[in-house]
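>> received
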Amino acid sequence: FRSFAEAADQVFWILDLSPERFVYVNPAFERLWGYGIEDLYRSPGLWKEALHSEDRPHVAAAVGNWVRGMPGARYDAEYRIVRPDGQIRWVADRRFILKRKGGVTSRIAGIAEDITEQKRVDEALRQANAGLEERVQSRTAELERSHQLLQALTAVQESIQEEERKRIA
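>> returned
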């Protein structure tokens, strides 16, 4: 398992709850968060400190709902982190409760994945779709104006033809 986890692009981690401490984090943490694994072992809240300030409230609410075990609650969140170099990365985070015999929760494990490129592609597609929609609306309005102009010209032409018929008759 360790060989697999250490080769993975996703962050795999296991957290003891009492006392709260990481017992395993694979090297992908360093690549994604930009902090050393030893830093996280020394300071288990380090991952939270890296949360983008706009995302902290929704991550805290998601964790709180999940921990309280609200019906249907599960921890599956997307959020941004700010790396020590200032770079912002998007993370998809999934957590799982690990229980001992007797059903006592002893650890939490999780998988976190860098989805920054996917978010960039999604945003580019959203912008492209918005641009296309704007062009379609513009073209539709242009066609409507052309149709109205054509109707007006047709009415003028029919009026001229009617005047011409009256003059000939």
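>> The longest helix spans residues 116-168.
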